[in-house]
Amino acid sequence: MEALIYAWKAVSVLKSNAIAIAKKDSVLGLGCGQTSRIDAVQLALWKAKKFGHDLTDSVCASDGFFPFRDCIDTLAKNGISAIIQPGGSKNDAECISACNELNIAMVFTGFRHFKH
Predict the structure, then answer these.
(1) Is pTM, for the whole model, over 0.90?
(2) Residues 56-93: pLDDT tens digits?
(3) What residues does each domain of the chain span?
(4) b/e 36-71 (16+ beta carbons within 10 angstroms → b)
(5) What is the DSSP letter of 64?
(6) Which CATH class is domain 2-108?
């Protein structure tokens, strides 16, 4: 839970669409200012890998909801173990099912940091 809170605080100051990938007290990758959530996810993962970070059991924070499960699938393929996001998508049930299927914990905050 500590890593999720840390990532949630980090993503709160980024330009939307924003994703923060973290472990405990370290940000591993950021994807921000993107035109879509999946682009932000892919950018954050690319940056983390570029600098040689091991993403196993890392966490993800999103400043806005995940509109589709593609983000969840991409995060799972890269070792993400938990996600924190505001929720509120008409496809929340699909994202919850994806997390259950992929054994990823997901926390809904009910509050978004989305800035536009």
Answers:
(1) yes
(2) 999 999 999 999 999 999 999 999 999 999 999 999 99
(3) 2-108
(4) ebbebbbbbbebbeeeebebeebbbbbbbbbbebeb
(5) S
(6) alpha beta
